[in-house]
Design a protein that fits this description.
Rossmann fold, about 130 residues, single chain, alpha/beta, five-stranded parallel beta sheet
């Protein structure tokens, strides 16, 4: 596992954002966690830091249903932003709904690392993130 992995959580629901960041902090206190209330905010931060490797995320957890820029559109922008960044930052999708065929295809093609349905147990989330780092 990388020393002090950088984990970003994107969720417009404040409670889900808080729960996800707290679960990660409890299971892996060494992780550097940053929360975003919108995917647009995360894309902006990626753009600003695309040349500063230590500021870029190792793992990105994103909700599928986000206003303005949804999870699928975020993944597309993330991939297009910097091709090498898409390989460096592993995307984990969190959703309160079952995976659509579109997201199942993304998992199969390894564009995203995994798709987890909410509510997510601490053990599953921690194990998944540890495997990605």
């Amino acid at each position: 596992m990388k020393q002090n992995p950088n984990v970003w959580v994107i969720d417009n629901n404040e409670i889900d954002l808080l729960v996800a960041t707290r679960l990660i902090t409890l299971c892996q206190p060494i992780f550097q966690i940053q929360g975003f209330a919108s995917a647009s905010e995360a894309i902006l931060k990626l753009n600003l830091n695309k040349n500063i490797a230590e500021n870029l995320p190792d793992v990105i957890l994103t909700e599928t249903h986000l206003p303005i820029l949804d999870g699928y559109s975020f993944i597309e922008k993330h991939q297009a932003l910097i091709p090498q960044l898409a390989k460096r930052s592993k995307v984990l999708v969190l959703s309160s709904q079952k995976a659509t065929p579109k997201f199942k295809d993304l998992v199969q093609s390894q564009v995203i690392a995994d798709y987890l349905e909410k509510p997510i147990g601490a053990e599953v989330l921690c194990l998944t993130i540890r495997q990605l780092c």
